[in-house]
Amino acid sequence: MKRLTTLMLAGSTALFAGAAFAQHTHVNVAMQLEPPNLDPTAGAAQAIDSVVYSNIYEGLTRFMSDGSVVPGLAESWDISEDGLTYTFHLRDGVTFHDGTTMDAEDVKFTLDRARAEDSTNAQKALFANIAEVTVIDPLTVQVTLSAPTGALLFNLAWGDAVIVAPESIGEAATHPVGTGAFMFADWVQGDHINISRNPNYWGTPAVLETATFRFIADPTAAFAALMAEDVDVFVGYPAPENLPQFEADPRFQVLVGNTEGETILAMNNAREPFDNPLVRQAVAHAIDRQAVIDGAMYGLGTPIGTHFAPHNPDYVDLTGISNYDPERSRALLAEAGLPDGFTTTLNLPPPSYARRGGEIIAAQLRAVGIQTEINNQEWAQWLETTFRGRDFGLTIVSHTEPMDINIYANPEYYFQYNNPDLQALMTTLNETTDPARRTELLQQAQTIIAEDYVNAYLFELAVPTIARAGIEGLWLNQPTAAIDLTAVSWP
Q1: CA distances from 221 to 290, 350, 467 (A)
Q2: What is the pLDDT of residue 87?
């Protein structure tokens, strides 16, 4: 690849320190979780995409705020009649932040790396049907599939599929180099990440010159930071009980949208007693979803009975399969040979829905004889021991990846559900391009996991955003876990 003159990134904290920023050039954005690293192609945490998606990294396609998929680094594509060959036509004149050109070789490197045997991509299944990636010329790349994949363009819009370069991927975890409208500047771990406008961006340049992402886990501290105007925006504000106060304050605007976040009480299907479907069913019937929504989220959230977003047109309301019925729960435990209940662990990551919801759910489980040992874990610890290490009985987490029901076809995924029939169904879905047939298959998949009580399905996570009055261009909804600042402006 042709090497251009290396850009001097404004990477020192001094760029952001000292002087006050004019409102129209800088924004301070707060979020609850700090990303464990900044490489979305090798990490599972949604906080990574929150910072880098669209801002720093871009894919061949991308999600818009309404959930639609539009061209990204590929300006167009052709699909063969048999659905097995996609020819992507790349935008001309795109460069990475280090000055190297973005071309077909980078696309090949990205996709080959994501689907490699030793890939650490958290969503490796997205690339499973890619048989070969061929460079036709610097601006043309051909992707050959082993079977038709109706969701390929959707899959390529995920943060896990953003285009990276071999020259910079080695430092992506701490110094991401992408093609986006903003460049990484610096990261003071435990406190903030700074980004600055990319002066050589191929598309519409960002209005903001700089932005800071701050990490504030504690709800009380989040409220104080907003009221003191230390932060301008808080995405995913963790204390919904404060929303009426912000709504009544003319300094602020309150945006409440939806997410792709299925919030679940996950069960370790490979660990006793959760390897018994009767026990999983007992857990599900012990949970009063609305009480969790009201008590932990102050009413923000939509009850779900399966792992699928209610705003998706293919959603099926299956909440009745696992309705709140503590008597039924006790009977099921007795049928499973556990009339006196049992004790298990309940690992809780930092978000409010988990910590607050966990206390409520622990009490509900206790009422039917299930005792829980609560372990409050920091995010990195949860990722290491619960998600990767699978060392848990129960845990609460919100899955914010878009339409990710395919995770149930992976028996190695952290809740370790192994159903060959569902795996075959998902393979058929991946190879199906007819919209009506895809709807039918998706609804079958939703029903299978609901009737198998793989997990206890709680609610679809809402996303409350508190922002200073006058700020425009923020996403209302989150069709993917992103805080896209590329269109944000002040008056």
Answers
A1: 27, 14, 16
A2: 98
